[in-house]
Design goal:
With about 350 residues, the protein is mainly beta. It is built from 2 helices and 24 strands. About 5% of the residues lie in helices and about 45% in strands. Strands 3-2-1-24 form a 4-stranded antiparallel sheet, with no helix packed on it. The chain has a 4-stranded antiparallel sheet with strand order 4-5-6-7, with no helix packed on it. The model has no long low-confidence stretch (mean pLDDT about 95).
Length: about 350
């Protein structure tokens, strides 16, 4: 079985990568490296979540959608708007690109021709205006989202402190900053009737059209979102792979990836028959995540793609993508249909 894997590195180069992995042989090859132009380059970013449409791969970068011709293994277009920030995923639904604009707090929709169609905002418009003009909200969003019935104008936000994840260079253009987000939408898919967003910050699934909460597990820190028949599959950073009923969103089963003896930041998921393809990203002690990861020592973690039995979680195959020098990370795993 072969698959495309998108990712990047935690160093300062800001380049993205697409690997071609072969689970049968354990081999990986670099299909493409993309070096963003200066105005789109950000340290520790690369290519995030992606979707395949015919022979074209659409991949999210920090502030752009990158269009890749797989047959030629080259970039044929880069779609950028100044409101894009920390894009996490691009879905192709019908003839439209549905984009998880994580930093902005929205799900944006474009045609395949790159023309903007519309947006589903998950925060009030005035907060977007303030943020794009150089302000940052406080750590807690409750006071921002709940204006109350007093009729008073919102008060100015206090200066926000930076850390390893957020930047405080408020003079930089919005698309070049690392900003504080609200729900941290990292994936959008469709079950045929609804657009369903996976939200990392509160461990939830939300129906975008009606803004309804479908499922939530606080503290789960979930990624991905794969519809497979009557099931909806998710990953969580602590190694859980969760199978939900795609109608009721009740939990049907749960596997623990770390039981295989392999561990890392769990993100990247594909379902193929009786198999699961699951991604891990190496966690380093000197660069621990801002969210609680797992009850494991980061030493010995890895960046890899695992092939698991979907019924019992047995490890069937593995391709390692760890880069000790640059600290590699992966986002999407996309099986190729013509591979066994």
């Amino acid at each position: 079985m072969k698959a495309l894997v998108t990712g990047g590195y935690f160093d300062d180069c800001g380049d993205g990568i697409v690997w071609l992995v072969d689970l049968a042989s354990g081999r990986s090859d670099v299909l493409l490296r993309w070096q963003p132009p200066a105005h789109l380059r950000l340290p520790a970013k690369g290519l995030a979540g992606a979707s395949l449409h015919d022979d074209t791969l659409y991949a999210a970068a920090h502030a752009a959608i990158v269009r890749i011709d797989l047959a030629r293994a080259n970039v044929t277009g880069v779609l950028h708007q100044p409101c894009m920030n920390d894009l996490h995923h691009v879905s192709v639904l019908g003839e439209r690109l549905v984009v998880s604009n994580t930093g902005l707090g929205s799900v944006d929709v474009f045609g395949l021709d790159g023309v903007f169609v519309g947006s589903h905002a998950l925060i009030p418009g005035w907060t977007t205006a303030w943020r794009m003009s150089g302000s940052e909200p406080p750590d807690r969003w409750a006071g921002v989202l709940d204006a109350g019935w007093t009729g008073s104008a919102p008060t100015a936000w206090p200066a926000a402190a930076g850390d390893a994840y957020y930047s405080c260079d408020l003079a930089a253009p919005f698309h070049q900053r690392k900003v504080r987000d609200h729900l941290h939408v990292n994936h959008v898919t469709s079950d045929g009737d609804r657009m369903i967003a996976t939200c990392f910050a509160d461990g939830s699934l939300r129906e975008i059209g009606k803004f309804e909460l479908l499922w939530r597990r606080p503290g789960a820190f979930v990624h991905d979102g794969v519809v497979d028949g009557a099931s909806f599959w998710l990953t969580a950073i602590d190694g859980a792979v969760i199978e939900l009923d795609a109608t009721t969103f009740s939990v049907r089963s749960q596997l623990q990836v770390f039981d295989t003896g392999r561990r890392g930041w769990c993100r990247g998921l594909a379902v193929r028959g009786d198999h699961l393809l699951v991604g891990l990203t190496e966690v380093r002690r000197e660069r621990l995540p801002r969210h609680r990861w797992a009850d494991h020592d980061p030493d010995g973690s890895e960046t890899s793609v695992l092939l698991l039995d979907r019924h019992d979680g047995r490890l069937l195959a593995r391709v390692e993508l760890t880069d000790r020098e640059r600290h590699s990370k992966l986002y999407s795993i996309i099986p190729l249909e013509d591979s066994a």
